Amino acid sequence: MxxxxxxxxxxxxxxxxxxxxxNATLPLMALQFLALTAVLNMIFYKxxxxxxxxxxxxxxxxxxxxxxxxLKANELTQEYENQLAESRKQAQLIIKSAQKEAQLIVSQNxxxxxxxxxxxxxxxxxxxxxQKEQALKSLEAQVDILSEQIRMKLLDI
Length: 157
Description:
Largest sheet: none
Radius of gyration: 62 Å
Family: Belongs to the ATPase B chain family.
GO molecular function: proton-transporting ATP synthase activity, rotational mechanism; proton-transporting ATPase activity, rotational mechanism
Coiled coil: 70-156
GO cellular component, one term: proton-transporting ATP synthase complex
Order of helices and strands: HH
Shape: rod-shaped
Keywords: ATP synthesis, Cell membrane, CF(0), Coiled coil, Hydrogen ion transport, Ion transport, Membrane, Plastid, Transmembrane, Transmembrane helix, Transport
Helix content: over 70%
């Protein structure tokens, strides 16, 4: 290292001239530049590029995982929405059938009640007719008795 410094100081003393001096310092500077580039590449650029590559791979993996999870979530959402729609359709069908059954039961109950009312009316009408006939028979019998009594009184006189 000391030899290098000595050479550099001698080279600077010998040529003090132009803008570009082509002496021993030029190859030395080129070697120094290449050595510094190699050292920087080993110390800084490779670790930084490894970290950047790892980070890029992590981000890529995270994006892939996230997109896969998003696709799976969308599929599950679609499946659940389909199941919900199917359940709603089935519920509507059940409600409609229950309403039809209820209407059928109500109409049957109304029909039975009307039939019972008609039967009661017929029974009441029949009973009234029987009572009417009995009343007429008893009136006829009374009329016959009264007419017989009147005739007897008229004949006795």
